[in-house]
């Protein structure tokens, strides 16, 4: 029998399987298709269970320290948070980074979510009491995958991100650092290298590795869209100036 082409199937392997099925006797064809149906149901249930497992972990465990809905971001709630909001995690984070970080978490916010909660006065000035900072739990590989997959489904505010907006360009490290530290004053709250800069915001020397580029642009453009009680100022920068900052973050994250 002449083989039949099925434009809807995009791989030679699938087309080969279909044409082999056509050559089968009716009973064999029925048995083969029945097995495929069962396997499809199993695969689908496994994917659903994985998402459900991630959902249970996030809603049951992560919610103790993170906001999993916008309604939790009251002024009082923001100050009490121990970790960043997760209800727009799928819009914000790179999945592979999340999966790896959850298995081997390192501190991203030197002063915690609200540095005032961890600041002590010393003779040499104010310092962060590192002992008051809560370490992030370490997940095993399966848990990390399940949680990462679930977080990618949380895409609040995706409508304010302009897809494919950011176009990477090379930037001089010297000029980029000057723009970051002096012209824009970002180092008042953030570090662009370990132990250099402010501690009230997350470090940014790994920002490009963990955050989606278009999200970074959208967040700098107007932080209050994402969190009405954000401590990040709305600087009203022109897009050209925002892109310059992202070019620099890409460079210092080692993504050049």
UniProtKB/TrEMBL annotation:
Under the heading Gene3D superfamilies, the entry gives: Cytochrome c-like domain
Domain annotation Cytochrome c: ranges: 49-155, 171-253
User: Is the Lyase keyword given for this protein?
Assistant: no
Q: Which InterPro entries match?
A: Cyt_c-like_dom, Cyt_c-like_dom_sf
**Which GO molecular function entries does the Swiss-Prot or TrEMBL record give?**
electron transfer activity; heme binding; metal ion binding
Q: Name one Pfam family in it.
A: Cytochrome_CBB3
What UniProt keywords are attached to this protein's entry?
Heme, Iron, Metal-binding
SUPFAM superfamilies the UniProt entry points to: Cytochrome c
Q: What is this protein called?
A: Cytochrome C
In its UniProt entry, the species of origin is given as Paremcibacter congregatus
